[in-house]
Amino acid sequence: MGRISLDINVLLKPEYLPEETEWGEILNPQGVFPEREIVPLGPKSATVPDLKAIVCDMDGTTTTTEALCIHSLETMVRRITGRLDAALWEGLTPDDSPHIIGNSTTRHVEYLLNKYRPHIQPELVSDSFLNAAFWFFAFGRDARRVAEVADNFKRFTGFSYKDNKLAKEISQWKEQGRIPVESLIFWKARLLPKMEIEPGVSETNAAIDIYYQRYHEILNAIDNGLPITGFGDGEASGSSFISPMPGVAHFLSLIKGWLPENSQSLLPLLKPTEFDMTDTERSRSADMIKENWAYLSAHFRKNPLKIALVTSSIFWEADIVMRQLFVGIREEIAAWPLGERQICELQERFSHYEAVYDAFVTASDSHEIRLKPHRDLYSIALRQMGIKPTDFDRVIGFEDSASGIFSIRAAGIGCAVALPFHQTANHDFSPAAHILKGALPEAILRHRLFLKG
Ligand SMILES: [Mg+2]
Question: Three-state secondary structure along 63-109?
Fold first, then answer.
């Protein structure tokens, strides 16, 4: 993924695309034809003439969950290499980041298997896969994910989890809320000798299931308000992993036109500090910030925007993350210096994410092999919001990862804005129209959301 401006125009000149069309290349997951795809990108645009809609990524752009995904990927690598604690292996490094954030889980896992290949122990892949499979059969909540694990289980063991004896035990595990060690020993003794998971698609599928077990275990805990164990020495809670990225509550209230006229009082909370400005901008930054805020809040009160959330997570995951996020947003709003009634009204508007988003597109709307950097999720979002291709130049897309930015451009949106944070700071954002170190506050306060004029 990521090479752009290929000389493909020399080879092919589709008449339906402008001469100057930029092209980009996507590396597909293993086993998909073709290995690489070359796709046209929407014409890059620094501004939007008359903003109509926004499309926005979830992890790393709207919320802070990237850390959870990285932890779950690292746990998978630890389990299949037998290096469970930091003394044996320091863990994933910043060099891994561009390859494990923002793409499909398949691509992330393929990269890690390749990189850590010399340390992988095939018997640990089988053993960890069985742990994951049993966990999903007993406690998995997403039916599609459980079905995928069940398919792999059948392929690797020749055994169905609906087999009478196993099915009976699984229902006991569900009731007890735990899998007894003696059951695990019994089933592993029976199944492991038959298992051979070859490197390639099978091993990737097994590793994906091992990754998802950890990730879903954590999401289950968050959804049930339970502490999350297994992070260093201590425990963590949902709110320590899932909270709004800086400026998200302001941003959503602003573009929906929900901010009252006295909303200048919210500006100090937007922390407009950490972005680059020209000297001229800096000399009048206080005025510029106030003017832009006043302009945008008045503008969007009259012209509220549509917004889509677009994520490569499956619906079950995104739903938990977004519900938890909205708890955080309502808490943030409770502390805003506004009147009591205004706060109640705003909290009411943020009672559920469905009341805010005009489209909510997850991996469950597509397929693992068509996630970012493919355009599909963003194309679905544009369609669900009723935005016509002639209006794609009136849309802004926000993403924190390279493959997400590519995906926005591949869906035909020219104003793709990268909001890197510390875990994605080293991504290649060359297809982005803007790269904003100051994230959403910078987009709002410095760039006035790229509105032309
Ligand atoms: Mg992201």
Answer: ECCHHHHHHHHHHHHHHHHCCCCCCCCCCCCHHHHHHHCCCCHHHHH
C-alpha distances (whole Å) from 280 to each of 39, 276, 284 are 40, 12, 7
Q: Can you read off the two tokens belonging to residue 102?
A: 């923002």
- State in Å: Cα 401 to ligand 1 middle: 5
Q: Are 211 and 73 in contact (CB under 8 A)?
A: yes
User: Domain check: are 317 and 290 in the same one?
Assistant: yes
| C-alpha 405 to ligand 1 mean position (Å) | 9
**Residue in the structure block whose two tokens are 């492991």:** 192
Cα 170 to middle of ligand 1, angstroms: 35
Q: How far is the CA of 234 from the centre of ligand 1 (A)?
A: 26
Give the tens place of pLDDT for each residue, 228-239: 777 655 566 666
Distance 72 CA to ligand 1 centre (A): 15
* Residues 282-334 pLDDT 10s: 777 888 889 999 999 999 999 999 999 999 999 999 999 999 999 999 999 99
Distance 310 CA to ligand 1 centre (A): 9
Could you tell me the two tokens for 97? 């980041």
Give average pLDDT by consecutive 10-residue segment, the chain, 453 residues.
53 73 91 93 95 96 89 96 93 90 89 97 97 97 93 95 92 96 96 93 97 94 84 62 90 97 88 68 82 95 97 94 95 95 97 98 94 97 98 97 96 97 86 94 93 79
Assess contact for 312 and 103: CB atoms under 8 A.
Answer: yes
Q: Which of 241, 258, 293 is the last residue of a domain?
A: 241
- Residue 352: CATH number of its domain: 3.40.50.1000
Give pLDDT, residue 7.
54
Domain match, 100 and 214 both: yes
Whether residue 336 sits in one domain with residue 307: yes
8 three-state secondary structure: helix
Domain of 109? Answer: 66-241
